[in-house]
Give the backbone structure.
Amino acid sequence: MNPKLFRSLSIFVRIVETGSMSKAAQELAMTTSAVSQQIKQIEREINLSLFNRSPRDLTLTEAGELNYQSCLAILSAAQQTSEKLQLLQNRPSGQLKLVAPVGFGGGILSKPLKQLTDQYPDFDVQLSLSDEAVDMIKSGADLAIAIGPMEESNLVSRALANWPLTLCVSKNHALANSYLLPPNELSNFTRIAHTTAEFPLTNIKDQQIAQLPKPRIKVNNMHSIIQLVCDGVGYAILPKPEVKTLLDNGELIEVCPQWQLPKYDVLAMTPKRDILAAKTTIAIDILKQHFDEISAAL
Protein backbone atom coordinates (compact mmCIF):
# COMPACT_ATOMS: atom_id res chain seq x y z
CA MET A 1 0.00 0.00 0.00
CA ASN A 2 1.14 3.56 -0.76
CA PRO A 3 2.70 4.84 2.50
CA LYS A 4 1.00 8.25 2.22
CA LEU A 5 -2.41 6.62 1.70
CA PHE A 6 -1.80 4.22 4.61
CA ARG A 7 -0.90 7.12 6.91
CA SER A 8 -3.91 9.15 5.81
CA LEU A 9 -6.28 6.23 6.48
CA SER A 10 -4.62 5.53 9.83
CA ILE A 11 -5.01 9.16 10.92
CA PHE A 12 -8.70 9.15 10.06
CA VAL A 13 -9.30 5.89 11.96
CA ARG A 14 -7.47 7.14 15.07
CA ILE A 15 -9.58 10.31 15.08
CA VAL A 16 -12.76 8.24 14.97
CA GLU A 17 -11.61 5.84 17.68
CA THR A 18 -10.26 8.50 20.05
CA GLY A 19 -13.13 10.90 19.34
CA SER A 20 -10.74 13.82 19.09
CA MET A 21 -8.27 15.27 16.61
CA SER A 22 -6.00 16.45 19.44
CA LYS A 23 -5.93 12.99 21.07
CA ALA A 24 -5.22 11.34 17.73
CA ALA A 25 -2.46 13.86 17.06
CA GLN A 26 -0.90 13.13 20.45
CA GLU A 27 -0.94 9.36 19.82
CA LEU A 28 0.53 9.79 16.34
CA ALA A 29 3.20 12.32 17.42
CA MET A 30 1.73 14.96 15.10
CA THR A 31 0.38 18.46 15.55
CA THR A 32 -3.38 18.92 15.67
CA SER A 33 -3.07 21.24 12.68
CA ALA A 34 -1.33 18.56 10.61
CA VAL A 35 -4.04 16.02 11.50
CA SER A 36 -6.76 18.51 10.58
CA GLN A 37 -5.10 19.17 7.21
CA GLN A 38 -5.10 15.44 6.44
CA ILE A 39 -8.85 15.26 7.03
CA LYS A 40 -9.49 18.37 4.95
CA GLN A 41 -7.49 16.81 2.12
CA ILE A 42 -9.65 13.66 2.21
CA GLU A 43 -12.84 15.76 2.30
CA ARG A 44 -11.67 17.79 -0.73
CA GLU A 45 -10.96 14.61 -2.66
CA ILE A 46 -14.39 13.07 -2.00
CA ASN A 47 -16.22 16.44 -1.93
CA LEU A 48 -18.06 15.41 1.24
CA SER A 49 -17.69 16.14 4.96
CA LEU A 50 -16.49 13.27 7.14
CA PHE A 51 -17.40 14.79 10.52
CA ASN A 52 -20.16 16.79 12.13
CA ARG A 53 -18.17 19.36 14.09
CA SER A 54 -19.19 21.19 17.25
CA PRO A 55 -17.14 22.77 20.09
CA ARG A 56 -17.60 19.62 22.21
CA ASP A 57 -18.36 16.73 19.87
CA LEU A 58 -16.91 15.19 16.75
CA THR A 59 -19.28 12.70 15.15
CA LEU A 60 -19.26 10.92 11.82
CA THR A 61 -21.45 11.97 8.93
CA GLU A 62 -23.03 9.28 6.76
CA ALA A 63 -20.09 9.64 4.37
CA GLY A 64 -17.70 9.51 7.32
CA GLU A 65 -19.21 6.26 8.60
CA LEU A 66 -18.98 4.67 5.15
CA ASN A 67 -15.38 5.83 4.81
CA TYR A 68 -14.54 4.56 8.31
CA GLN A 69 -15.80 1.05 7.59
CA SER A 70 -13.86 0.99 4.31
CA CYS A 71 -10.70 2.20 6.05
CA LEU A 72 -11.00 -0.54 8.67
CA ALA A 73 -11.23 -3.20 5.98
CA ILE A 74 -8.29 -1.79 4.01
CA LEU A 75 -6.06 -1.37 7.05
CA SER A 76 -6.96 -4.82 8.34
CA ALA A 77 -6.02 -6.39 5.02
CA ALA A 78 -2.77 -4.43 4.94
CA GLN A 79 -1.97 -5.47 8.52
CA GLN A 80 -2.61 -9.14 7.78
CA THR A 81 -0.38 -8.99 4.71
CA SER A 82 2.40 -7.34 6.72
CA GLU A 83 2.09 -9.97 9.47
CA LYS A 84 2.24 -12.83 6.96
CA LEU A 85 5.39 -11.34 5.41
CA GLN A 86 6.97 -10.92 8.83
CA LEU A 87 6.21 -14.53 9.68
CA LEU A 88 7.83 -15.69 6.44
CA GLN A 89 10.88 -13.59 7.28
CA ASN A 90 10.71 -14.54 10.99
CA ARG A 91 11.87 -11.00 11.70
CA PRO A 92 9.85 -8.49 13.71
CA SER A 93 9.65 -4.96 12.40
CA GLY A 94 7.57 -1.86 12.96
CA GLN A 95 6.18 -0.79 16.31
CA LEU A 96 4.85 -3.00 19.11
CA LYS A 97 2.20 -1.26 21.19
CA LEU A 98 2.59 -2.80 24.64
CA VAL A 99 0.38 -2.14 27.68
CA ALA A 100 1.50 -3.20 31.18
CA PRO A 101 0.72 -2.51 34.85
CA VAL A 102 2.47 0.57 36.27
CA GLY A 103 4.60 -1.50 38.65
CA PHE A 104 6.19 -3.36 35.73
CA GLY A 105 7.82 -0.11 34.62
CA GLY A 106 9.97 -0.15 37.74
CA GLY A 107 12.47 -2.63 36.33
CA ILE A 108 10.61 -5.85 35.54
CA LEU A 109 10.45 -4.97 31.83
CA SER A 110 13.94 -3.48 31.53
CA LYS A 111 15.75 -6.68 30.53
CA PRO A 112 13.21 -7.99 27.98
CA LEU A 113 12.84 -4.55 26.36
CA LYS A 114 16.61 -4.22 26.07
CA GLN A 115 16.82 -7.67 24.49
CA LEU A 116 14.08 -6.85 22.00
CA THR A 117 15.59 -3.55 20.89
CA ASP A 118 19.18 -4.87 20.85
CA GLN A 119 18.32 -8.03 18.94
CA TYR A 120 15.91 -6.56 16.38
CA PRO A 121 17.04 -3.20 14.91
CA ASP A 122 13.89 -2.74 12.78
CA PHE A 123 11.67 -3.01 15.82
CA ASP A 124 10.55 -0.40 18.36
CA VAL A 125 8.17 -0.37 21.32
CA GLN A 126 5.48 2.03 22.49
CA LEU A 127 4.95 1.17 26.17
CA SER A 128 1.85 2.40 28.02
CA LEU A 129 1.65 1.81 31.77
CA SER A 130 -1.74 1.65 33.47
CA ASP A 131 -3.40 -0.23 36.32
CA GLU A 132 -6.81 0.48 34.78
CA ALA A 133 -8.52 -1.83 32.32
CA VAL A 134 -7.50 -0.99 28.75
CA ASP A 135 -9.65 -1.57 25.67
CA MET A 136 -7.02 -3.19 23.46
CA ILE A 137 -9.10 -2.98 20.31
CA LYS A 138 -9.91 0.70 20.70
CA SER A 139 -6.38 1.63 21.79
CA GLY A 140 -4.78 -0.34 18.96
CA ALA A 141 -2.53 -2.27 21.38
CA ASP A 142 -0.75 -5.37 20.07
CA LEU A 143 0.03 -6.93 23.45
CA ALA A 144 -1.03 -6.35 27.05
CA ILE A 145 0.45 -7.78 30.22
CA ALA A 146 -2.42 -8.33 32.63
CA ILE A 147 -2.94 -9.65 36.13
CA GLY A 148 -5.33 -12.61 36.21
CA PRO A 149 -7.67 -14.25 36.52
CA MET A 150 -9.41 -12.61 33.56
CA GLU A 151 -13.10 -12.68 32.77
CA GLU A 152 -14.31 -14.00 29.44
CA SER A 153 -13.44 -11.55 26.69
CA ASN A 154 -12.68 -11.18 23.00
CA LEU A 155 -8.97 -11.51 23.80
CA VAL A 156 -6.60 -14.48 23.84
CA SER A 157 -4.60 -15.02 27.04
CA ARG A 158 -1.29 -16.84 27.45
CA ALA A 159 0.28 -17.63 30.83
CA LEU A 160 3.54 -15.79 31.53
CA ALA A 161 4.02 -16.40 35.27
CA ASN A 162 2.43 -17.36 38.57
CA TRP A 163 3.95 -15.14 41.25
CA PRO A 164 3.56 -14.85 45.04
CA LEU A 165 2.10 -11.99 47.05
CA THR A 166 3.59 -10.91 50.35
CA LEU A 167 2.38 -8.83 53.30
CA CYS A 168 4.94 -6.07 53.93
CA VAL A 169 5.72 -3.08 56.10
CA SER A 170 8.58 -0.60 56.24
CA LYS A 171 11.46 -1.41 58.60
CA ASN A 172 10.80 1.98 60.25
CA HIS A 173 7.11 1.29 60.94
CA ALA A 174 5.96 0.27 64.42
CA LEU A 175 4.57 -2.99 63.02
CA ALA A 176 8.11 -4.05 62.02
CA ASN A 177 8.72 -4.81 65.71
CA SER A 178 5.57 -6.99 65.88
CA TYR A 179 5.72 -8.66 62.48
CA LEU A 180 4.89 -12.10 63.97
CA LEU A 181 1.40 -11.01 65.06
CA PRO A 182 -1.48 -13.03 63.54
CA PRO A 183 -3.72 -11.25 60.99
CA ASN A 184 -6.58 -10.66 63.47
CA GLU A 185 -4.28 -8.59 65.69
CA LEU A 186 -3.28 -6.06 63.05
CA SER A 187 -6.30 -3.77 63.46
CA ASN A 188 -4.28 -1.17 65.39
CA PHE A 189 -2.10 -0.56 62.33
CA THR A 190 -3.07 1.20 59.11
CA ARG A 191 -3.65 -1.16 56.24
CA ILE A 192 -3.30 0.00 52.62
CA ALA A 193 -5.03 -1.96 49.86
CA HIS A 194 -5.56 -1.94 46.12
CA THR A 195 -9.09 -0.92 45.16
CA THR A 196 -9.68 -4.05 43.06
CA ALA A 197 -7.96 -6.82 45.01
CA GLU A 198 -8.63 -8.57 48.32
CA PHE A 199 -6.95 -11.81 49.38
CA PRO A 200 -7.34 -14.18 52.35
CA LEU A 201 -4.38 -15.59 54.26
CA THR A 202 -3.83 -19.29 54.97
CA ASN A 203 -1.91 -20.56 57.97
CA ILE A 204 1.02 -22.64 56.73
CA LYS A 205 0.72 -25.20 59.55
CA ASP A 206 -3.01 -25.83 60.04
CA GLN A 207 -4.47 -24.29 56.82
CA GLN A 208 -6.71 -21.97 58.85
CA ILE A 209 -8.13 -19.12 56.75
CA ALA A 210 -7.96 -15.52 58.02
CA GLN A 211 -9.00 -12.12 56.66
CA LEU A 212 -7.03 -8.95 57.16
CA PRO A 213 -8.61 -5.93 58.92
CA LYS A 214 -10.50 -3.47 56.74
CA PRO A 215 -8.11 -1.17 54.86
CA ARG A 216 -7.85 2.43 56.03
CA ILE A 217 -6.44 3.59 52.66
CA LYS A 218 -7.40 2.33 49.19
CA VAL A 219 -5.34 3.10 46.10
CA ASN A 220 -5.84 2.18 42.44
CA ASN A 221 -2.12 2.00 41.62
CA MET A 222 0.24 -0.66 42.95
CA HIS A 223 3.37 1.44 42.42
CA SER A 224 1.87 4.12 44.69
CA ILE A 225 0.96 1.50 47.32
CA ILE A 226 4.56 0.30 47.40
CA GLN A 227 5.75 3.87 47.86
CA LEU A 228 3.28 4.50 50.70
CA VAL A 229 4.47 1.35 52.46
CA CYS A 230 8.12 2.37 52.04
CA ASP A 231 7.23 5.80 53.46
CA GLY A 232 5.92 4.14 56.63
CA VAL A 233 2.24 5.00 56.10
CA GLY A 234 1.06 1.43 56.72
CA TYR A 235 1.30 -2.21 55.67
CA ALA A 236 -0.04 -3.83 52.50
CA ILE A 237 -0.21 -6.92 50.32
CA LEU A 238 2.44 -6.43 47.63
CA PRO A 239 3.58 -8.43 44.57
CA LYS A 240 6.83 -10.09 45.59
CA PRO A 241 8.70 -9.64 42.27
CA GLU A 242 8.18 -5.87 42.49
CA VAL A 243 9.52 -5.59 46.06
CA LYS A 244 12.12 -8.39 46.17
CA THR A 245 15.04 -5.94 46.15
CA LEU A 246 13.48 -3.97 49.02
CA LEU A 247 12.98 -7.18 50.99
CA ASP A 248 16.51 -8.38 50.28
CA ASN A 249 18.10 -5.12 51.46
CA GLY A 250 15.91 -4.95 54.56
CA GLU A 251 13.93 -1.83 53.62
CA LEU A 252 10.73 -3.87 53.84
CA ILE A 253 9.82 -6.56 56.38
CA GLU A 254 7.44 -9.46 55.71
CA VAL A 255 4.52 -9.46 58.15
CA CYS A 256 2.76 -12.64 59.34
CA PRO A 257 5.40 -14.93 57.78
CA GLN A 258 3.60 -17.98 59.18
CA TRP A 259 0.63 -17.11 56.95
CA GLN A 260 0.56 -17.55 53.18
CA LEU A 261 -1.13 -15.47 50.48
CA PRO A 262 -2.35 -16.88 47.15
CA LYS A 263 -0.31 -16.43 44.00
CA TYR A 264 -1.43 -14.28 41.08
CA ASP A 265 -1.31 -15.01 37.36
CA VAL A 266 0.54 -12.80 34.91
CA LEU A 267 -0.95 -13.10 31.43
CA ALA A 268 -0.06 -11.98 27.92
CA MET A 269 -3.24 -10.73 26.25
CA THR A 270 -3.67 -10.31 22.49
CA PRO A 271 -6.66 -9.57 20.24
CA LYS A 272 -8.16 -12.62 18.54
CA ARG A 273 -6.51 -12.87 15.13
CA ASP A 274 -5.95 -15.63 12.60
CA ILE A 275 -2.26 -14.70 12.47
CA LEU A 276 -0.17 -13.27 15.29
CA ALA A 277 2.51 -10.88 14.04
CA ALA A 278 6.14 -11.94 14.44
CA LYS A 279 6.81 -8.87 16.60
CA THR A 280 4.11 -9.99 19.06
CA THR A 281 5.12 -13.66 19.07
CA ILE A 282 8.77 -12.86 19.71
CA ALA A 283 7.89 -10.33 22.42
CA ILE A 284 5.78 -12.96 24.23
CA ASP A 285 8.60 -15.52 23.99
CA ILE A 286 11.17 -13.09 25.41
CA LEU A 287 8.81 -11.97 28.20
CA LYS A 288 8.10 -15.59 29.14
CA GLN A 289 11.82 -16.40 29.26
CA HIS A 290 12.54 -13.41 31.46
CA PHE A 291 9.57 -14.00 33.76
CA ASP A 292 10.69 -17.63 34.21
CA GLU A 293 14.04 -16.26 35.43
CA ILE A 294 12.25 -14.00 37.93
CA SER A 295 10.14 -16.93 39.15
CA ALA A 296 13.25 -19.04 39.74
CA ALA A 297 14.77 -16.28 41.89
CA LEU A 298 11.73 -15.79 44.18
